[in-house]
Design a protein that fits this description.
Blueprint lengths: L2 H16 L30 H22 L27 H9 L13 H14 L3 E5 L2 H10 L7 E5 L4 H10 L6 E5 L5 H6 L4 E7 L11 H10 L3 E5 L4 H4 L9 E5 L13 E5 L1 H15 L5 H11 L2 H20 L4 E5 L9 H7 L6 E6 L4 H10 L4 E2 L9 E4 L18 E5 L5 H15 L1
Parallel strand pairs: 2-3, 2-4, 4-5, 5-6, 10-11
Antiparallel strand pairs: 1-7, 6-7, 8-9, 9-12, 11-12
């Protein structure tokens, strides 16, 4: 699954060494620091600086993924050599002297003072998530919606304007079109498949471009590198919801995006037992959000849920690899089934933006959408109700396969939505064997006839 990074690293290393430039920055990692902190930046005057910087990033990623998820940030000497990190279930922390307490008040992002700000268990998780994304720092929230809200609200004020892609996460839409207008913030939703649409929609008061690539029903993509370049040239902040791919599957920060966001309830937590959100970015950006929306609104993750996420990170690469393999087989079955009109999946060769998906996505998730040949809502319901291996539920990213039909969005059977037709179904493929899932789909299609 991760051969792409190793294959990129090796020829670059060979090239640099052929010119007598043994990289001095390849060194053992310190578990008390971030993954990138042990690598010095090559001199800017070097003719090989581009190759060496690429080498540095790729080395950290390809060689140290296992280190990040299993060891980074875990100082086991502090907790009796325990293999699993501790759950520090404490709301506040004590100090020996007034001077130490005084210092803590000025360094609340780094010091354990009150768990609304920082907590030892959460801090381990933050370090790992930042390293996985190639970001300087991370904040972990009580939900993906909380992370998105903090990212947006920290970059707008009354009178500002946001450009956002069409069909984002529903709570992003509500934030931009229902909540923020109460405080004088406006938003324009656009087709993000053309980067120039962001430029065309930008106003003198635009402060933020908000992306979601792919979105999680019809999977439209945005060209992250191109949009990041356009935004930087105009002094506009970019934020992207990267929940579909994870930081393993799509390197948003490295492509120039300022803020990367995730619903961690999905693949990162991975067991349908945690609701959480992630925000990633530069030290400056994360510090700004920490001191404003994060602390003030208090939408934090609990130490116990942070510990559950640490548990889940251990198996994240293995789970993603299995999910991708399973999904490819189920998608192939659906594409060839006579009762399926259309399948939308970014790594399908007939996907409208297949080339862009191949360019910027290193991994394609377990979500796909199918339009089935149903004459009416009743037939869709017969098919969905007849499935036994799939659970009918929102969200995704756990071990269990799920589905959600668009007809469940509508209050009556006669409603035809302009974006989501009644016969569209979103599937999530989990960790079950694909043959088991395909057999279930076959019997459900037979019931629909």
């Amino acid at each position: 699954m991760f051969e792409w990074s190793i294959s990129t690293f090796q020829p670059l290393l060979k090239k640099v060494r052929a010119e007598g430039l043994e990289p001095p920055w390849i060194a053992p990692l310190d578990p008390k620091s971030s993954a990138s902190a042990n690598f010095a930046t090559p001199a800017k005057g070097s003719a090989n600086v581009k190759e060496m910087l690429c080498l540095q990033k790729t080395y950290v990623w390809s060689m140290d993924l296992s280190y990040i998820i299993n060891h980074l940030g875990e100082d086991r000497e502090k907790y009796f050599g325990a293999v699993a990190p501790p759950i520090v279930q404490s709301s506040n922390f004590a100090f020996d002297t007034v001077e130490k307490l005084r210092e803590a008040f000025t360094q609340e992002q780094e010091v354990n003072l009150y768990t609304r700000g920082n907590n030892p268990t959460v801090e381990i998780l933050r370090k790992k998530l930042a390293a996985l994304a190639g970001a300087d720092d991370a904040l972990v929230f009580a939900s993906g919606a909380a992370a998105i809200s903090a990212a947006v609200m920290s970059h707008v004020k009354a009178g500002d304007h946001v450009v956002c892609v069409n069909k984002p996460y529903s709570w992003t839409t509500k934030l931009l079109q229902e909540y923020l207008p109460r405080f004088g913030v406006t938003a324009t939703l656009i087709d993000g498949t053309n980067p120039q649409n962001f430029v065309a929609a930008t106003q003198p008061n635009t402060t933020l471009w908000f992306l979601e690539t792919p979105n999680t029903f019809t999977f439209e993509l945005q060209d992250l590198s191109a949009i990041a370049d356009l935004a930087k040239a105009r002094g506009i902040t970019t934020a992207v919801d990267n929940s579909y791919c994870t930081s393993i599957g799509q390197r948003c920060i490295e492509m120039g995006i300022d803020i990367e966001l995730h619903s961690a309830s999905k693949y990162y937590a991975g067991h349908s037992d945690v609701v959480a959100g992630i925000l990633l970015g530069s030290k400056k950006t994360v510090s700004h959000i920490f001191k404003t929306e994060f602390q003030n609104m208090g939408g934090i993750i609990s130490p116990n849920d942070a510990w559950l996420m640490l548990r889940s990170l251990r198996t994240l690469p293995v789970r993603l690899e299995k999910i991708a393999a399973n999904t490819a087989k189920v998608v192939a079955f659906m594409q060839n089934h006579p009762q399926v009109e259309k399948v939308i999946y970014p790594f399908s060769k007939n996907f409208a933006q297949y080339e862009l998906a191949q360019k910027q996505m290193k991994w394609c998730g377990g979500l796909f959408t199918a339009t089935i040949k149903a004459k009416n809502v009743a037939q869709v319901e017969t098919f969905c109700d007849g499935l036994q291996a799939f659970l009918m539920a929102v969200s995704w990213g756990g071990h269990e396969s799920l589905l959600i039909p668009t007809c469940s969005f509508y209050p009556n059977h006669g409603y035809q939505h302009e974006v989501f037709p009644f016969n569209m179904i979103r599937f999530y493929i989990g960790l079950e064997e694909p043959e088991f899932l395909i057999a279930d789909l076959k019997q459900a299609f037979q019931k629909m006839v």
